[in-house]
Amino acid sequence: MAGSPLAGQEFRIGFLGGTPITSNFAPSTSFDSGDAVNPPSLFTAESGPRSVLAGLSLEALISSRFSIEGDVLHRNLWAKDIYTLNPGSTAASTTTNRFVASTTWEFPLLLKYTMGGNRWRPFVEGGVSFRSLERTGAPGPSRHGLTGGAGVAMEFGRIQLTPQLRYTRWAQGESNGFYDVKRDQLEFVTGISYRMPTSMRVGDHHQMAVGVLGGARLTETLAGAPNRLDRRAFGGVSLEANVGAGVSIEADGIYEPIGTAGNSVLTWEFPVLLKYRWAVRGVRLFGEAGPSFRASGNLQSSIPPSSYGFTAGAGIEKRAKGIGIAPALRYTRWSEGQGYSGFRRGAVYNPNSVELIVGAFF
Questions:
Q1: 264 pLDDT exceeds 80?
Q2: Pair 121, 217 in one domain
C-alpha cells in the first residue's frame, strides 16, 4: 500500500502498444493413414495471426538513472487448425480454422536504467512478468517468467516516447501435444507517457503517491477441498491520494490465485479504501476501510468467486533512508455468490479472508 507522499519524486503514466515478433505456438502435425471407411487425413496445429499488445504503464522515477515500471498488457494468443482429407491426392480438401486459444493479461514489473543526459536516452530494463488468463481453449500458458529489454527514451517536454524490444522467457506451461505455447517471447512495443510529479497538488493538502505491495493469506480460500492451494503469496501496486488532516484514499490492484493446487482460479482484487492516520508516542498508525472488487479468470469450468466485498484493516508506517514500509493486517468479507453453494464436491469459496500485507514506497 502506498504510504506517505513521495515528496519530490515523480512518476510517469502512459500507454503501451506493439506486436509480438515471435509466433505464439510451436507447430505440430499429426497424420492418420485412414482405413477402409475413413480416408487418410493430415492435421496441423500452428500459430494464427499475430495480435496487438496494448495496455497501461506506471513508472516511478527513483533517480535520474533508475526507475521502476509496472505494466498491464492485453494480448490474444491466436492459433490455427489446418485439416486436410486425402492429402497429396487430386481429391484433397482442406479446412482452416483460426481462433483465439487464450486471452491473456501480462504484468511485467521492471527495473530500468537510463543512460545519457540529452533528449535521446538509451535504456535497459529487467525484471519479472506474471500472466493471467481470461479464457483458455488450449492448454494454458505459464503464469510467470523473466523479462529483459532495451530501447530509447525520446523526451519532448513532459511527453516521452519509448520504442523498445522486449524478451520474456516464460516458465514451462501445460501441453496437450498440439498447442504448446512458446516459452521464448520477443516483441516490439512503443510507449507514450506523461511525467507527473507525485507531489502534484490539487488543493493545499492533496497529494498523490505510488507504491508496491505484497503479502500472504492467513486463511484458506477454499473450504472442504482435499488439495488446497499451496501458494499463498500475492503482490500488486497501489495509488494513494492524500486528502489532508490525516485522511487519504487508496486504490490497489492485487494479483492473487485462489482455489486448489490442481485448478487455481486467477483473480485480481481492487480494494478502494478510506484511510486515517494518527500518531501514538512517536509511532504512526493507520486504519482503513472500504469496498473491494474482484475480477477472475482461468475458470476452466470452475464456479467464479464473488465479485465484491468489504475490506477493513490496520497497520503501522515507518520511513527510513527515503524508503517507507507499511505492514498491515486486512480482513475482507466477500459476498456469497454461486461459488459458495457447496455442491462442487463439497468445496466452497471462503467468504472470510485475512491477509498480512506489506507496502513499500520510495
A1: no
A2: no
